């Protein structure tokens, strides 16, 4: 696997994030418009509650808001397309002019299409665009831009997951978790680039907790800098996850401190995007981290 040069920018719809002018990673705030997400399910089901939470994150310094309408926790049951759209589209409509980049957390091609049309800047897909029509959805968006519409080319986040949310934690196995996750992400990114997607639109996520044991997760965090060798911005999504509970014995809503510790470790190892529930605390911690970088 050839080591590649990390891009200086990430093109994310209406926003161009220039990593050459900033040291700290982008903070992506999680906004779950779902009843059953593992950490905050049900808290932001109404549009007004979701908007209030988004405004709180914006005031705290969030760079990107990730809107999801379907839980992907281990064992989660899928929801219908219409139910997902009913959950996320009103939130996108309410936030599209908030001045902060918006992401749609989905694997459904039609949700991607409608969310992009509604104004989101990024597609964040746990299936790495492997579901039917997903690649076409982002390519069609690119073609609409080239045809002269006001839509900007979306950012794309490709995540690694072993199996699916219903079965991913049933005895996950790897010969070499780092090498296998890197190979998968490289292949998915290369596919998009072959189809004309600019490399600086693509970010990658090794998928902590998605078909990984505690040992696999710890190995990925310890060697997180390896993922940057693929030449794309790397996202770390560890916030409040079960691996932190196993290490600390803390319940989901008591994992703020472990989540921040993991975020700082990931930042030290080259993460360009940190996906979190606790935006204000993470932003503050990264300010301290940034102040001592040389």
Automatic annotation (TrEMBL):
GO cellular-component terms in the record? cytosol
**Domain Pterin-binding: where?**
25-287
Report the catalytic activity: (7,8-dihydropterin-6-yl)methyl diphosphate + 4-aminobenzoate = 7,8-dihydropteroate + diphosphate
Cofactor dependence: Mg(2+)
Q: List the pathway annotation.
A: Cofactor biosynthesis; tetrahydrofolate biosynthesis; 7,8-dihydrofolate from 2-amino-4-hydroxy-6-hydroxymethyl-7,8-dihydropteridine diphosphate and 4-aminobenzoate: step 1/2
Keywords from the UniProt entry = Folate biosynthesis, Magnesium, Metal-binding, Transferase
For this protein, what is the EC number?
Answer: 2.5.1.15
Single GO biological process annotation from the record: folic acid biosynthetic process
Q: Name one GO molecular function term.
A: dihydropteroate synthase activity
Q: What does this protein do?
A: Catalyzes the condensation of para-aminobenzoate (pABA) with 6-hydroxymethyl-7,8-dihydropterin diphosphate (DHPt-PP) to form 7,8-dihydropteroate (H2Pte), the immediate precursor of folate derivatives.
NCBIfam families attached here?
DHPS
Instruction: Provide the family line.
Output: Belongs to the DHPS family.
By what name is this protein known?
A: Dihydropteroate synthase
Q: Which gene encodes it?
A: folP
């Amino acid at each position: 696997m050839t080591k590649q040069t990390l891009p200086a920018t990430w093109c994310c719809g209406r926003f161009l994030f220039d990593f050459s002018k900033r040291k700290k990673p982008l903070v992506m705030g999680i906004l779950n418009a779902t009843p059953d997400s593992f950490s905050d399910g049900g808290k932001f089901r109404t549009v007004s509650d979701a908007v209030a939470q988004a405004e709180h994150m914006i005031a705290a310094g969030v760079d990107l808001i990730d809107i999801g309408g379907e839980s992907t926790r281990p064992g989660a049951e899928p929801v219908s397309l219409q139910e997902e759209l009913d959950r996320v589209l009103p939130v996108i409509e309410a936030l599209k002019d908030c001045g902060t980049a918006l992401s749609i957390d989905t694997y459904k091609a039609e949700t991607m299409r409608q969310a992009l049309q509604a104004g989101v800047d990024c597609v964040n897909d746990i299936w790495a665009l492997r579901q039917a029509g997903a690649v076409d959805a982002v390519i069609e968006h690119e073609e609409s831009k080239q045809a002269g519409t006001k839509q900007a080319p979306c950012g794309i986040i490709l995540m690694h997951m072993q199996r699916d949310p219903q079965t991913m934690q049933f005895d996950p196995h790897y010969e070499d978790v780092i090498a296998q996750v890197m190979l998968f992400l490289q292949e998915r990114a290369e596919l998009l680039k072959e189809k004309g997607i600019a490399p600086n639109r693509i970010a990658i996520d090794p998928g902590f907790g998605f078909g990984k044991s505690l040992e696999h997760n710890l190995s990925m965090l310890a060697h997180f800098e390896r993922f940057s060798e693929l030449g794309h911005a790397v996202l770390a999504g560890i916030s409040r996850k079960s691996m932190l509970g196993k290490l600390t014995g803390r319940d989901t809503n008591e994992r703020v401190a472990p989540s921040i510790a993991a975020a700082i470790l990931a930042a030290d190892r080259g993460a360009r995007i940190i996906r979190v529930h606790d935006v204000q605390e993470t932003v503050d911690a990264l300010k301290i981290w940034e102040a001592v970088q040389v």
